[in-house]
Design a protein that fits this description.
5 strands; globular; alpha/beta; Rossmann fold; 11% strand; 11 helices; five-stranded parallel β-sheet
Amino acid sequence: MRPTIDIQTLRDKAHWVRRETLLLHGRAPETRVASSLSAIELFVALHYTGIMAFDPKNPRWEGRDRLLISKGHGSICYYPILADLGYFDSAELDRVCLEGSFLGGIPDTIIPGYETINGSLGHGIGVACGMALGLKRKMASNHIFVIAGDGEFCEGSMWEGVMFAAHHKLDNLTVIIDNNKLCMLDRCENVMAVEPFDQRFAAFGWETRRVDGHDIPALLDELTSLKQRGANGRPAVLIADTVKGKGVPELEQDTLCHIRTLTPAEISRATGGDK
């Protein structure tokens, strides 16, 4: 059974996070905004529903579930969420990428709430495997979530992690793929095909699910089910089909949106005139 929570409240929260992410990009144009916009509902579903266990007052609480953000550049949307939850003062959002701020264009563990350094791609699953295996051997009940980009699966290290997790029966691990179909310079299918994810993960022995990554009720159903599925010896993957640059037509229609910087006028239109 999924958590009891008002779905419209969650949709409003996602809308707010999208707006705040765009405003952050306006203050720090070096941030990768399109990649952050596709993952917003994933972060909202994990953090405002009780699916994940965490404590903003004690970010290193031993009883917490772990979230590893493999696509670190695409998690600027996590900054307003962390501030909203109380990990740090929201005033810090006004200093993003400025000297003296711990909020950079690429996040690292100096930010309360971030588990790992997230600059180089392709390491999220491997690091998560180590955490998941260690927790299993301690007989701990913590769950490990990973948010990874689809383009990352061009990296061989990701598939090594997939094999490792299946071999060691890491059923306390759930990988969520932000499957927005675009990497840095083109559609994934034109650079190196990573689909069909379902069949590839299933071949390695993973439990596989697919969902509309912007459909909050569907996300809640799948994430709750995966978290509560119990010990079955199989790691799980949730393939979340998303739109890169979601909510901003100029980005949604641009194959090169990953490296695109929005103009102040585009940000103003997308946020309803906010500066």
